[in-house]
Each structure stands twice: as C-alpha cells, then as structure tokens.
C-alpha cells in the first residue's frame, strides 16, 4: 500500500474513532476508557509519521512495531466498549478497520524482520 494512502487511512481511523467517542455519554466509568482510547487511536498515525522519517531501517521497524502495539490497544479498548454497550454499527466499522490495519502492520513488520 502507498505510504501516503496508509498515513491518510490511519488519520481517518483516528478521526472517526474520536468522533464516535464524542457521541458516547460521559460517565464516571466511561471517561477513563475514552481518554485512553483517544491516546491509543491517535498514536498510530503519529508514530507512522515518525516511521516515515526514521533514521535507519532498525528505527523504522521499531516505529512500525509501535504503530502495531497502539492499534492492538485500540482494538482491545473498542472491544471493551462493545462489551459494555452492546452492538453498534459505527463501533463494528471501527473494529473492522482496526483489524485491517493490524493485519497490514503485522505483515509489514514480519516481512521487514525476515529481511534483517
């Protein structure tokens, strides 16, 4: 996948996740989860931008692994929200996109690790 398109996809994912969170009620229990999810869902786009400017191949791989780590955290947090709130079409779309992005970065990191 083209690096610019992938970066845009990560940005869109972050924006859509934050928009989803804005629609959810603020309760004493949901606020910490929402704050954590905002950090986790925006981090992949930021780390991918850093990876694109990596100083070495090793640095690039490390930053891609950070992207993957944050995507997994986002996915798990979205699953927790689903468990607490039940089915939601918007949430299901976010979970699907998170799965797709995770698959992209798993493949990328495995391929790069094999080439080392």
At a glance:
The longest helix has 29 residues, at 57-85.
Characterise the protein shown here:
By secondary structure, the protein is mainly alpha-helical. It has a single domain, classed as 23S rRNA-intervening sequence (de novo design (two linked rop proteins)). 86% of the residues lie in helices and 0% in strands. It has helices spanning 3-23, 30-52, 57-85, 89-115. The longest helix has 29 residues, at 57-85. The protein is elongated and about 45 Å long. The chain starts with a helix and ends with a helix. The model has no long low-confidence stretch (mean pLDDT 95).
CATH superfamily: 23S rRNA-intervening sequence
CATH class: Mainly Alpha
The average pLDDT is 95
Quickly give the CATH architecture: Up-down Bundle
User: Could you say which overall geometry the principal axes of the C-alpha atoms support?
Assistant: elongated
Strand content of the residues, in percent? under 5%
Total number of domains: 1
Q: Cα distance, first to last residue?
A: 21 Å
